Amino acid sequence: xxxxxxxxxxxxxxxxxxxxxxxxxxxxxxxxxxxxxxxxxxxxxxxxxxxxxxxxxxxxxxxxxxxxxxxxxxxxxxxxxxxxxxxxxxxxxxxxxxxxxxxxxxxxxxxxxxxxxxxxxxxxxxxxxxxxxxxxxxxxxxxxxxxxxxxxxxxxxxxxxxxxxxxxxxxxxxxxxxxxxxxxxxxxxxxxxxxxxxxxxxxxxxxxxxxxxxxxxxxxxxxxxxxxxxxxxxxxxxxxxxxxxxxxxxxxxxxxxxxxxxxxxxxxxxxxxxxxxxxxxxxxxxxxxxxxxxxxxxxxxxxxxxxxxxxxxxxxxxxxxxxxxxxxxxxx
Amino acid sequence: xxxxxxxxxxxxxxxxxxxxxxxxxxxxxxxxxxxxxxxxxxxxxxxxxxxxxxxxxxxxxxxxxxxxxxxxxxxxxxxxxxxxxxxxxxxxxxxxxxxxxxxxxxxxxxxxxxxxxxxxxxxxxxxxxxxxxxxxxxxxxxxxxxxxxxxxxxxxxxxxxxxxxxxxxxxxxxxxxxxxxxxxxxxxxxxxxxxxxxxxxxxxxxxxxxxxxxxxxxxxxxxxxxxxxxxxxxxxxxxxxxxxxxxxxxxxxxxxxxxxxxxxxxxxxxxxxxxxxxxxxxxxxxxxxxxxxxxxxxxxxx
Lengths: 332, 302
Prior knowledge:
The complex is a heterodimer. By secondary structure, chain A is an alpha/beta fold.
């Protein structure tokens, strides 16, 4: 099956006062139709910028996509005109943002904000757009949709607003939804509801999902595949199960280790990753994780490791020291 | 689907099911209680509006007809505010002058305000080079005081009500655009604008539908200030002989000519039109200030 989304060597740069920031530095990944792919990384690793790059909404200036291709449903999005791109946004790719509190316009009713997208892409008249909006609201599990349509965002709870955002993203039956930290601003029980909802809907409607998160729990439970990003690059990529069971990159290992877990003794200390993510304006030739890596040696400073097959088929990792890493893992 | 949690809907119903909404009358009343000075302003503005709109019924005389048997008469029962040197009833001229002031004041404020609103929001929305260029153009326009700019425009287009409106509207545009832009800049950064873009909406739609309604509060306050400024500017231009022309009744015009000549012998010719200008502008300012307090959520609950 042809991939729905195929990102190849995507580069996005920001010109800042401090210098050139390669926020996304040649990342490649694919998303198959109906699949859920997670992009994981800490703040500043370039995961959100990579998502905005797909929709070509990186603020320019200072940002700019400087290379690569983004093939979506057979077309290179980077070559489309701005008008064609607007048809893609909201029409073929929907997006859900992190902040349900501020992602809805406070002065417009919920109904207006849903029908607006429909009118834009589907040339629907008011009445049928209204009907579709009611349908969408019940689809995302909002009770009494007719009344909700007439309400303003401040009358809804955070979880409900995120459901509305999902309804807007789904409005035009897109093939792909990009969710940028969709649950970060919600409390834990609502997070679970929203994630279940997204999982259920993507499966039922056959929509592919790219979910950007720093929550490894989300990844484990909902993603088919995982791309781990660090300093603008993908350092490990593979099926969610494989990445969890046998992480092949020291960063992924450290990330998994730093998560508090219920199956460990309660008073044991967390094992955080020491140090800070690197300053993206002054990266050297070597592996960017090297300063924080337990396994780094001189070889890691000489060049940047490329993604290579590690372990299973489709499981890739960018590390020179995988041998030592696996040895240490086995010893523990 | 079992995802609509009964808990969430229940909670929401109590909070949002009955939206907190007061009738217009209730809101006006609570405004009056909290803002006594604003109420005074509102009363002055309403008085002026009623006078201007109902001039045909309120004015006891024709404002342009002369009564040569009663020239420079002091206030009396027949002429409550006296007459001018041509025997025209001052009260009638002031009432009809209110109409001129309303036409000029509101037209200038609304046209200048709306044009400035759209330009200001667009400038903030596009940002970058467009914004930079536009702001420098505004700087140039703002370098001239309102009345100087208006004088220059009148010098080009000539006098008369229509040209006065144009002359006052043009310098109001950059003043509005500047203020609106600064409010719109903060809205530009709010995620719902990005969200609107990810829905594939066009620039015009985002500017008009999503950004403009969010700068309405500062815009409305600005608009009231503009009405006052425009009335004052019209009076100044007319006083200088570059605005509304005789015999059209206009307050600035009434201060000119006879008012100066007879200042010591018939002071009422100057006092009453001057009072009309002062009270109107004062009223509008008071109302605008109160409106700002009422619309500013930070000051609302004091």
